[in-house]
Amino acid sequence: MAHIPIGSEKRDTPVDDLETQRQDALDTLAARYAEGVFDEDTFERALTDVRAATDQRTLSAAVRAYLPAATGGRPSGSPQPDPGQSVTAILTERTVSGDWIHHRAVTATTVMGSLTLDLRDVVLTEDTRLHVVAVMGELKILLPRDVAVHNEVSAILAEHTDHSRGGSPRRTGSPALYLTGTAILAEVTVY
Predict the structure, then answer these.
(1) Residues 90, 122: one domain?
(2) Are residues 36 and 124 located together in one domain of the fold?
(3) Is 78 within the bounds of a domain?
(4) Comparing C-alpha atoms, which of 83, 112, 121 is closest to residue 23?
(5) Residues 30 and 124 in one domain
(6) Based on the number of CB atoms within 10 Å of its own CB, is 107 exposed (0-12), middle (13-18) or buried (19 or more)?
(7) What is the pLDDT of residues 78-137, one digit of tens each?
(8) Is the entire prediction scored with pTM above 0.85?
(9) 103 and 24 housed in the same domain
(10) Contact between 79 and 57 (Cβ < 8 Å)
(11) CA 178/CA 162 separation, integer angstroms
């Protein structure tokens, strides 16, 4: 029975089913992408290679190519991710509300889940980047009033709807919210 390396560790339980191993690898790659380990092009190549694997040997090789154990699961030369705030919903439904943003860089990830980010009560004191990753899930972003919004979320076989119209015009000295990230086989709605 084969083991699939995930990051720098090996699975504790053997898995016979190639499709289960493939899904584990895709989930791990999505999580590493959300952490900032990969840029978008590298992530897309990794997904393509894992999906193209026809047996356990080629699947293991594809995973090792993007998550080498020698670098602790981080490809050589990759920048360290910003240690900002993160919110995650994997195979679950989650809503985050109130004045919950306390860092200028926030990452929100949903994988086969539903995540609602309610920013209506958030008080931004500086420009803030909200990096989103939605893979086969749903992400809703409810924006605060009086904040300029720059939306640069990319959709790959996904639906991205922006009802915000860019938020409010930016006033001199007021903070802005920068939405970045990727939706893959997902739905992202900004209100």
Answers:
(1) yes
(2) no
(3) no
(4) 112
(5) no
(6) buried
(7) 444 445 788 999 999 999 999 999 888 999 999 999 999 999 999 888 899 999 999 999
(8) no
(9) no
(10) no
(11) 13
Looking at the structure of the chain, the number of domains it has is 2
Q: Is 21 helix (H, G, I), strand (E, B) or coil?
A: helix
Sheet holding 85-90, edge to edge: 85-90, 105-111, 128-135, 176-184, 148-156
Helix, strand, or coil (residue 11): coil
Give me the domain span that covers residue 57: 5-71
In angstroms, rounded to a whole number, what is the distance separating the alpha carbons of residues 160 and 48? 22
For 35-46, b where at least 16 C-beta lie within 10 A, e where not — what string? bbbbeeebbeeb
Residue 9 in domain: yes
Instruction: Tell me how long the chain is.
Output: 191
Q: Kindly state whether residues 152 and 95 are assigned to the same domain.
A: yes
Query: 12-62, pLDDT tens digit by residue?
Result: 434 457 888 888 888 788 877 777 777 778 888 888 888 899 998 888 888
